[in-house]
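Inputs:
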Amino acid sequence: MQILKLLLKNSFRHKLRTSLTVFGIMIAILAFGLLRTVVSAWYAGVEASSATRLITRNSISIIFFLPLSYKEKIRQIPGVKNISYSCWFGGIYISEKNFIPNFAVDAKTVFELWPEFVLTDKQKNDFLHDRKACVAGRKIAEKYGWKIGDTITLRGTIFPGNWDFTLRGIYKGAYKSSDETQFFFHWDYLNESMKKTSPNRADQVGWYVVGVKNPDLAADVAAAIDKTFKNSLAETITETEKAFQQGFVSMTEAIVIAVRIVSFVVIIIIMAVMANTMAMTARERIGEYAIMKTLGFGGWHIAGLIFGESLIIAFTGCAFGIAATYPAANAFGDAMSTYFPIFNVQSETIYMDIAASLVVGLVAAVFPAWRAVKLSIADGLRRIG
Amino acid sequence: MKIPFSYSFRNLWTRRLTTILTASGMALVVFVFASVLMLAEGLRKTLVETGSYDNVVVIRKASNSEVMSGVDRLQASVIESQPEIAIGENGKRLLAKEIVILVSLSRRGSDKPSLIQLRGVEESSLPLRPQVKLIKGRMPRHGSSEILAASGIARRFKGGGLGETLRFAMRDWTVVGIFDAGNTGYNSEIWGDADQFMQAFRRPVYSSMLFKLSSSSEFQGFKERIESDPRLTLEAKRETRYYTDQSEMMATFLSILGLSLTIIFSLGAVVGAMITMYAAVANRTDEIGTLRALGFQRRNILAAFLIESLLLSLIGGCAGLLFASFMQFLTISTMNWQTFSELAFSFSLTFGIVYKSLLFSLIMGFIGGVLPAFRAARMNIVDSLRAA
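Outputs:
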């Protein structure tokens, strides 16, 4: 108890220096937490994907379509429970700045395969019965102030023209990790228009989403689907939704790696600041340490005092930093919602914060503690004279 | 009288450990600051060099990139007959009707796929892009399954090297030549015969048309005419503008990330400098008293401590820049969200960045040092001498 009191007293002897250091650590932990959250947000799509869904797409690349006729062929493959399809519409709402992920989907089956998109029965019904209907996620509906019944116009990039939709439903995510920023509408609406304007692009879908009866069957079903269409004009690649998402993420991996490196750099920066504080503190107290040694305290006792003090400062900063992470992540997440639809601070991030400050506290104290252990009494006493 | 410069310098030297720790904290901040600027500059350079100001890209209206665009043969022939198109050395028009397709290829040594742009080209595609040079092999023969690979592709992707074959669209394509396009976007592309690609991929439309203006000033007139022509659903952009638009999202992302990192990191480093300088002042209370008693003015003391802090930050800034300059050897390749295709760019150090980074480190040193220096300057002679 006495020791703890001494540690606290020592820590806050230099109020200005300690509060500056604590502030520095707080900033560093905040930055570290935000950067780790950016990394986890990058993988949020992968985390949220289901193991029982397979994605079948054209093997050349995602910009090539698959014929609608594949649907029934895939359905016949053993192990397939249900099937849906969609395609990337790439429409722009007013200006390029308002990025909304928008898809044309098969209205009848979309909610079977995506149980995490929760809609009331009435809204689901309204959506099904209106071919120009669309459904938007809660977050984007709030962002653009859309209400049920509003007309929303998207400018097509892949499918030319202005497309009007009536908002018939606003879905909520079933889990915290569900994406609430998507926008989807009837594929039939798109298809009927394409039949009129460019018939050679009609009856084509972007990809199939296949639900399997049992996650263990996923690999076999995927192989069976690809085998069916081998050597056809549109060969397929089937993989789990997780692998599909992972493929997209790995294309931007360089950025994730950079963010990861930078998140460690900030910890090293603060380590230097903290080590400096402890080095100065220890240097000023050399006389005291000599006196303590004279009184019979061992070198390791003094080292313990230095380590304790360093850890107290580091953890105080860490606590403030963690407290500030949540509001900062909310603000950052709102500002960057175009890039990161899901931006939640994960509990692992907090553990890493604590581990980082533990390391900072320990490393900062190593050198001064070693000096204090080696200190000879005569030298120490001479210094104050 | 001024306090000699060596006083400030020697103070830093005496307390080496503290100086090194503080300076290295600052060095890291400057390193991050400079790296982010270099990355943004590298991206900008890649885009600027990719496009030429006098070249015009024609794509379908509202399709933001060549990949999404489609220009049918009828519309293409209307554009082909426009009078603004420059005539090349061989008397033919400098215009290329191209098709752009994404294919997924695996990197060497891994199975991770990347989306690579395939460009179906015509005879005049090469003269239109002076930055693209054939360095090995020969040009593909018209009407054959032969392709050219960029040096970036040849190095990093399976089957991309000279003499190797790539399989897509149910055919094997032989790489008969390697071209080098420097730092431009073309250096992550594969080129082949446009007509062959159309056949193989069953895509009977061009993606874009590229031509050189015979006179730079004719762009506005051309743009207005074709965009109001009822037969056409096309839009024209200068090539430089087209490539800037392509990476707007990436550029914005880099600048937001860079700005927020720099602000947060510099707060940490300023705190570090402040701690060091406050300690320097506190340790030297008696010295300051002595200096004042010797007749040095308050403003001399202020200057001496400020110089010490600026010197400290300059050491950090130079060290940070030194490390950042090594980043020039790195190339970042990532997916461009707007086109879904691979975009490679490297860190690029310019004089402007050196200047900005050093200025930034001096500003950090100034902010960190100004309060402690004021404290030193405001000390009372008698009190500070007594404190010793």
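Remarks. Chain B has a mean pLDDT of 88. Chain B has 13 helices and twelve strands.
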